[in-house]
Amino acid sequence: MGKSETENKIIQAATDEFIEMGLDGARMRAISDRAGINKGLIHYYFKSKELLFSKVFEVLFGVLVGRLNAAMGEENHLFDKIRSFVSIYVDAIQRNPRIPKFIISELNRNPERMFKMMNEKKKFDATKVFKESVAQAVENGDIVEIDAHQLFTNMLSMCIFPFIGRPMIQFVTGMSNKEFESYIEVRKTEVAEFIIRSIQKK
Amino acid sequence: MGKSETENKIIQAATDEFIEMGLDGARMRAISDRAGINKGLIHYYFKSKELLFSKVFEVLFGVLVGRLNAAMGEENHLFDKIRSFVSIYVDAIQRNPRIPKFIISELNRNPERMFKMMNEKKKFDATKVFKESVAQAVENGDIVEIDAHQLFTNMLSMCIFPFIGRPMIQFVTGMSNKEFESYIEVRKTEVAEFIIRSIQKK
DNA sequence: GTCTATATTCAGATAGAC
DNA sequence: GTCTATCTGAATATAGAC
Prior knowledge:
homodimer
């Protein structure tokens, strides 16, 4: 399974190009230039643009799923799960801010693909763990009664949206780039506290 | 300024096509078919694909800004502003669920354009109104101290993200299409209550 | 204003030498 | 495996008849 040097360079270059330009906007020419190799070689290794894209998507999607599971599995108490999820997740996206947009575009473009991958990858259990934890907390009387899916997607929204909607947010709020950076830093802890304040019983 | 029948048909068809396919994915051929007119006519009226796209974007962006301002200006008390914003906004997006994705894609692709439009459209004061209302509520001791931008973007995130990330959310939670519909209905009121619970002083 | 036919450009893919 | 050269198809754009 050892990939050649060239193959790796192509995948890396393709990842950058697809993330920046999307599937339709990406150019094979641009990918070969980024990789510093011949355009024809891409077809030698990956046959077509579509197959190359699939490869890139698989890798990125796997990383995303892995992070979701990791962030959710580490802590026991619901509040700590939430704190852990927010800080790990926002931090991870901050390092690769264009990945969510890429993943979401592709899931919109081709929803069937995700079912295929669902079967291929190890099963996605982050939300199951989360739901159980919410049920437990409700039972213990720690939090108000709330639908776990609503809660989970609220959390996901506040973690992901700022990166997808960054230009919109900067436009609406008038934040500078510098201000946006510290705005994100604040969110690594404050989004979790925002959520916890909302659900905990006093 | 009276637009011809044909011109209007083109704009409507182009709006549908661009929203569904994105700028790169859209085809002039598909637009002329949707409009039921000759392909060459599009160039007669709009010169190029790029200019046609600009036209479509301007219209949609104007609608978005108008809604933001309307939703924010109607109520006086902060909590009612939040309730009003969430219900109006989620409902509006529900009717046209692909608009946010379209707007955000374009703002990412071409951030300069938004500054141009900022000057052309009447100024965007929804957030100013919101900030003042937050400051007032803090002063009155009604809510905890919170940065208005953080609060505003939390609200925006929870309103918009479910539509952008719908396939991702359905994948992660396992919701059916039917379940997703009622999930959105719940959000029209519950997102506002979620926010209010978090910020109000007991 | 609306159509048909055509020009132009360009990207993805292939063939074949080395 | 890597390169050069080329094919093929598609999409935007234009020219010109009506």
